[in-house]
TrEMBL record, chains A, B, C, D, E, F:
Cofactor dependence: Ca(2+); Mn(2+)
Family indicated by similarity: Belongs to the manganese catalase family.
Record: residues binding Ca(2+): D57, D61, N223, S225, G227
Organism this protein belongs to: Catenuloplanes atrovinosus
UniProt keywords, alphabetically: Calcium, Manganese, Metal-binding
A matching Pfam family: Mn_catalase
UniProt region (Disordered), positions on chain: 230-289
Pro residues: compositionally biased ranges: 260-277
Binding site for Mn(2+) 1: E35, H69, E150, H183
Protein name: Mn-containing catalase
Presence of the UniProt keyword Iron in the record: no
Residues annotated to bind Mn(2+) 2: E66
GO molecular function, one term: metal ion binding
């Protein structure tokens, strides 16, 4: 259960309107690596976490914080949209090509649909969707994703930092950069903690029995693109990071099995060519008996 | 440019048909963490890589290999769909409830749309889409994502391994598990290589000037969910993994700035309440002059 | 079954081309609250209506009319796109920054994909989709949605009215505004009619037995955001609109049950931590016996 | 800014597992009218609300409460998935056709992707997306939508109530039904409050000048579907609900203007037929001069 | 403008309910090749058609007819859903595994969302969307698509024909098969008519000047997959169908230009490696001067 | 299995940057008719092809070639984005309105998300998705689609050709135009080859028994849009292209059956009106007995 207070986590106001930047800022609100993603991802991971204690608490702490970041960016976007020109006539009134550029570079739905406010969409107006998040039940797999999410997020905020001159906007971005620094470090520490606690290890999932995988392919780099530059990296020789194998390098693709030939399909599917009539239904039953 | 040979990278045939499992197998073909994702992700990362040599070659090697995994799973799905019952009458013919269960648990579009073949969709029939991949131009951010992709992928294959008894299917999954082991290790090694080569470091992007972020928030865990379990992890005290700061813990949320009050919007947007008439257009012009 | 006549329901031509406005006009064609939504929503509601007579007829009347609005807007968009500059060179020919702004603010797909015509997309080029409509089988729930659809639609048309100076376009918008006025009123009247006819009432669905809901929570405002401003509205005290209860106000969140602890998951799902091995399959069987 | 406590708003546990119902319950979590929709919708409306005081507080109160409903349903789904059979062999172990039916009616991604947990998707596995919510800046238009959201939501919960026999699940649904009762009433009261406060009225947006719409079409029912049953409703005669007009009925479609003929398109778009060569670019410039 | 009569174009009733088949039938209603696609596609093509006369009339005739097919299938689905079991208890009441299979193979949203009615979705519950249709402005390109749409549609209806034993359903399918036969023939005839009328020819768009394409690659089959089976077809030698060239066959891929090397990116995008600092902004200005 | 060489199939470099055109070029990379579509479509058709020999080889040849086209366009987009202005200040530095127009007409995600590189999206930033491709198992239905794909693709490239003045970009487009010419011809030849080989014929699927369709409707044009212009085409009289029927024309819509009346729905679905209580569940059981 949640409660809300009306203060922002970090207060910053723009010096002036900028509808073009407001469209761009949507990327870190409703884009794949935006705040809606991390907020929902950490909360779902927390709710699905079957291990009470520090991991579950951490996920709910940070997911709840990120909901506050959603709020901060929504508020900033609403402020950046204030006073934007509403038509070409206004945009042209000043003989200022920049004003026209801002008008034509807007997200029109921020005005027509949202009345001058934020939308749960990315910088092109494509809606955020639930496939952006993953809560797999395996904390190490998910913490890896969380490191990435904070890295991609910080990268995007850093890029946006160079796309505006507004001091107030820059101030908010500085705060977000700092939190992304914390969160990158935090998920890295959590990965180490999982190992220290003996809960999971590489290769994920570590509990899958080694004997069940085709181990001859498990530490071998295969060369599928012309040139052998890739043989020069750490990944082509020496010990593998999981401490369980040694990298090798195969300059040619693996030896091939004979080419697969598919049998004719069911006649009632009208594939080409029409298969020989006659029952293949029985095969299903045999397979199950 | 690519060329194709008709052999599969690893040949495995199912012992018998299983349309229900064929639907499930779609998850690792066209789901968020399926083969279409890793193939396209590594290729786009390779094409966008502005650094010739071992990293670009590696990305194209592995992206090209993954296209061959797409092919393997497509072929396996086509084979698993052979001889499936086409209607309830057939499914009921044997008084075998399992046959009925298979029929009702199918993806109908594999028959109606694809004529008994694979589709670029997940285990629920939702189409694969381009937002599943990221090629950010920052190799460390992307290699972190690649570790995750292989970890989530191996986790899903391991789960599928327990969902079938078919020896041929299991054989293919064993091969995929092994390649995912390699690829997890490989991207971990590549992360270390980037650091060794002095190209990137944490927090990503390392080149962003430290002085520009709000450093007081950069190593501090904030407590937003009741209880202080999260204070017990490595992420709440001690040195941070980036070697640049020391974790601290703030049991209460950060001090709050005054609550934001939004001004009235543009009257032509018909928000509530109707704002005072009069020009706010000028503010745009002032801001730009 | 439908028939078509080639006249538009209301004829209006633009005075001149305006590709930038043509992109914006897409919002009320293929956006969430556009004409494709209302046309399909009312027709699906009509086809699913199990009550012959005035309600079914009304739904089919208005759904069919809205198909004609789709046609009007499609035609207007095609006309607004005529003669648009096809490249930057043309857009720059006149040293008119407005022409450049129009060019850069276009929806490129209206030219590349549609050859200078409309698309079933919104003002950002995102395709219309079937989840925009609802036909629930409960007429009162759906008529409420229809009131909203006409209110949001009229709001968007009113906003667009200020985004153009073209007399012909404004003429078409005036007609659409009038029809939205009618349709808002009409669905409000239909809501009242449903009550008068004794078919449905609040809370929807009225037929659900009162005794089956947790009535102590059915008329109580809970305070989850700091501050008690919300206690000042009609919704916090006095009789509720359904005539069946009296509003109350609880300044604190409801009393809490003990925190939930999830048991370990199935070992074959590789969650964290690895659960105690041993059968939980039996529980399914027990629950069903 | 938000804070979280780990108690659920209302605690209820299922008596046993039911993976088939867990899939269905996703509809009110991540479907169009599910809890993710109302939570995000009310919060975005609150953040975009430019009117401090009771309306803004109410939106944030209820949006925050709904986040707690998301949490309740996520937790319930995780519990319902415990102990589900992981393959056909297990599902068949008991000769219980119901067990097989449950297995084949599952959402496979709840296991393969989410490891036995909830997903932000609907009952068919289609992801929740941002277009499900609207925050238009016009409170009356949005409160109408909120009434609908609670009506459609309560309708869906009522239907789900008949799809399970589990006492714990039913208990949670009883609570949700009660809150939906409250919220339907609350938004109805808020609509009235807006009128009482003189902030908005029908037809929405009331501030749009009456003289600018084509008033002859503003209160007239047009007959587009054969039969005149629709003339029998309140919407065809008598005073309109907005108090500003009187309904009339036109049995025939409105008189038609001449059929529109589109001119040939730009030759570089390769439409059919090839248009007369020659400049239409000038028209753009003329229109803007 | 449209008008509607309440008769179906072809009346057929199912003998009994079948919720499992009702889910499958959604494919030809709201799937990629379903009736919503052809109805909207032909209408948009008609509205965008800049050539008055027989082509425009044909498109509007057939698009309008297809709206009636949408209606027929919606009605059939509503009927097939009547009396479906609403929970596992009912489904198990008869010890009939088929009843359980039907229950678990349903689309749950047809009940929870649509109250026992059709939805604008495919057989997996994925919503229809606007990208399914194309109206390019080039009639020959679009009529080719229309042939395909009718071919894929007839193929799907033929497959569905074998998935039911219900005489009433089969009767409706027989009618749809016949109309698809007509429409395949009709669009083939229309392709020929366009050539006869001298409006368009292959390769589409014929009006693009031959001299502007790289003609040495215009009639050559390139061999990119091992084996030379593809050299045995009509497409590898002899006259090409457009009458303008002769097919040739190149067993090896085309000669290659040197490998592309991308220059370093903008430093503010934080790609790897960090590029040499210094201005590349000037290049944009130079290119435009 | 695939292998990759680093040369492009056809090398072309832009003379200078053009971020606005780079956004437009995305249409033929990740749009509905772009290279990702044809590459994946032909490969899936090839993998699903159950007929070894020239057809399967052709599909894999061309699908593999198209992967190389994806690579070419990705590389071109990365080059066109080099040196683009990163903010309004830079865009305004030169008093060049064209520079501002380019800035505001960019796809912002190409910078924020992709760091100055391509994305798997269309010209509006909407992600490519798997529903863009079809591999139906029926080669004639699919080859028809392939002709269309190449026709729509060539049309789009021809339109783009007029949207740029850059000689290097035009050079690449000339190559793509030539390959689209080949591929249109090739799939037309393949359609003829299928007939010559006796594998399939019109109407597709030819193997569906003629006696099972309602033949009286199979060659008749129905007039649903006012005016009889459509009677003047080849499709209204004379022999049909399939050689099996003769076109006829029915000026009036087909005779109508009585209007359908739906029975009341299940009471637990809360439709309007509430149906008579009492069992309709039994009907399901009867239908299955």
């Amino acid at each position: 259960m949640f409660s809300h207070i009306k203060d922002l986590q970090f207060e910053a106001k723009p010096d002036g309107p900028d509808a073009l930047f407001a469209r761009r800022l949507q990327e870190v609100l409703g884009g794949k690596w935006g705040e809606l993603t991390v907020a929902n991802q950490y909360l779902f991971q927390g709710w699905s976490c079957r291990l009470p204690g520090k991991y579950k608490d951490l996920l709910l702490d940070v997911g709840t914080e990120e909901m506050g970041h959603v709020e901060m960016i929504c508020t900033m976007i609403a402020r950046l949209l204030e006073g934007a020109p509403q038509n070409l006539h206004e945009a042209a009134a000043d003989d200022n090509p920049m004003l026209a550029a801002i008008y034509s570079g807007e997200n029109p739905a921020q005005f027509i649909h949202a009345g001058g406010g934020p939308l749960p969409v990315d910088s092109n107006g494509v809606p955020w969707n639930g496939s952006f998040i993953t809560a797999s039940g395996n904390l190490m797999a998910d913490f890896q994703l969380n490191v990435t999410a904070e890295a991609q997020g910080r990268l995007q905020v850093a890029r946006l930092f160079h796309m505006t001159d507004d001091p107030g906007v820059k101030q908010m971005l500085r705060f977000l950069l700092a939190r992304d620094t914390m969160h990158q470090n935090m998920w890295m520490a959590a990965l180490q903690q999982l190992k220290d606690d003996g809960l999971e290890d590489m290769p994920i999932p570590d509990a899958f029995p080694d004997a069940e995988q085709e181990n001859e392919f498990a530490y071998q780099l295969l060369n599928f693109s012309a040139g052998e530059d890739s043989a020069e990296g750490r990944w082509a020789s020496g010990p593998a990071p999981d401490g369980k194998g040694t990298f090798s390098y195969d300059p040619a693709p693996a030896a091939h099995a004979p080419a697969p030939v598919l049998p004719p399909g069911d006649p009632r599917l009208y594939g080409t060519p029409p298969p020989t009539p006659g029952g293949i239904i029985g095969a299903v039953k045999d397979a199950l008996s």
